[in-house]
Amino acid sequence: MSQTQDCPHEVCSTLPLLTAQMSTEREYDCIVIGAGVQGSFTAYQLAKNNKKTLLLEQFVLPHTRGSSHGQTRIIRKAYTQDFYTHMMEECYVLWAQLEREAGVKLYRQTGLLVMGPENSNNYQLIRNTLQRNKIPMMTLTHDNFSQHIPQMKLAKGYEAVVDITAGVLYADRALSTIQGQFQRLGGIIKDKEMVTDIKPGPVVTVSTNAGVYRAKSVVITAGPWANKMLAHTGLQLPLEVVKINVCYWKEKVPGTYNVKQRFPCFILTEGEESNEDIYGLPSNEYPGLVKICYHMGSKTNPDQRDMQTDRSDIDILQCFIHRCLPGLIPEPAVVEHCMYTLTPDRHFVLDCHPNYRNIVIGAGFSGHGFKFGPVIGKLLCELSLGQEPSYDLSPFQIRRFQAQTKSVL
Ligand SMILES: Cc1cc2nc3c(=O)[nH]c(=O)nc-3n(C[C@H](O)[C@H](O)[C@H](O)COP(=O)(O)OP(=O)(O)OC[C@H]3O[C@@H](n4cnc5c(N)ncnc54)[C@H](O)[C@@H]3O)c2cc1C
């Protein structure tokens, strides 16, 4: 007598059917771990390629605990290396495509003012990259600087160029848009599901606090938690997580630095205050407040981010604002928090796991990865499908860290 025929309980008679259904529900072509900007674009690309894709996120979405939250990010082609400028050419096209596809505005052109000492290596590299790649740009001299940007002072011995097509990306809106497009393509997002284990193999098994899933390939885009995830696969990368104080500064006269007054985004490559970049965006998301941050922070544990209370970056910003932005009160009005995951050379990690080709890693976006989301998603999708990547990925390979990469197995 079989259970399905004779058991009086309805639940027993449907058991084999349910079990079969459950197992197909838990089997995917690809599982993406982490629904920040990189995981969300990767999942979207996979779904676009008709792959059954699951995107797992440890927190309830949207959240402010990783690296992709906040209203704004800078988008630019101004880089010290050609390979980033080339990738950005396609990113602009893909961001515009997403805007059209979803019917939302994600980008606003403001231009990006890049300033640096005349003899600064980084400043010269950026200017040369713009020139060499024929990116629309404008050089500002000491004589005409205040005519174009009266709200800011260019220090003596400094030069400036404007990357004209640069601007602002509406980050939170972009994230919810791409996740929505992924779901529209049939993709599944499970938030509040923390991945607790990854078992490599020809089929990878991923366990969460709520279930066990299997997939032909897995993409790890866990941001500041990348090494925590990679530990399950026996790998540790030389990544450092730092907390960033996201500072907003009040205008003395409301509207002076507003996007409508054509105040641009800016980057100071090196200043009197420090060797790291200082960057800013025009006031827009919070009326009367200008976002200006230091491109470095202090080491933190992503699970205890706010236990790091160092404010030395804010001291540096105060000196800079006092010196160069006389229309702002040099005391931050609002401070929010975010994290960078830094690699030693500040280039990304876009590669297959050295021991398991069906585990793909996107990590170490080093505080400049948001604008690349559409192309990163495409590249991680290509790697997970075993396709030839559309760009030369040698600057992003794990083997460059050979001396610093630890196997923990
Ligand atoms: C203040 C600030 C300013 C920035 N400015 C710019 C800019 O102007 N331009 C620019 O291009 N870039 C900028 N960046 C960088 C950019 O935002 C990041 O490079 C990018 O957001 C990194 O995205 P990510 O998907 O790798 O990481 P995250 O956004 O952190 O996503 C990782 C996700 O994985 C999830 N996760 C981790 N572990 C697990 C687990 N066990 N189970 C399930 N889910 C898990 C996390 O919860 C998180 O949601 C800035 C970053 C900061 C912090």
From TrEMBL:
GO terms for biological process: L-lysine catabolic process to acetyl-CoA via L-pipecolate. Belongs to the MSOX/MTOX family. InterPro entries: FAD-dep_OxRdtase (IPR006076), FAD/NAD-bd_sf (IPR036188), MTOX (IPR045170). Residues 29-383 form the FAD dependent oxidoreductase domain. Its cofactor is FAD. The keyword Protease does not apply. Its EC number is 1.5.3.1, 1.5.3.7. This is Peroxisomal sarcosine oxidase. One of its GO terms (molecular function) is sarcosine oxidase activity. Transmembrane segments: none annotated. It holds the Pfam family DAO. NCBIfam families: PRK11259.1 (NF008425), soxA_mon (TIGR01377). Keywords: FAD, Flavoprotein, Oxidoreductase. Gene3D superfamilies: D-Amino Acid Oxidase, subunit A, domain 2, FAD/NAD(P)-binding domain. It catalyses: L-pipecolate + O2 = L-1-piperideine-6-carboxylate + H2O2 + H(+); sarcosine + O2 + H2O = formaldehyde + glycine + H2O2. Metabolizes sarcosine, L-pipecolic acid and L-proline. GO terms for cellular component: peroxisome. It is an enzyme of class 1 (oxidoreductase).
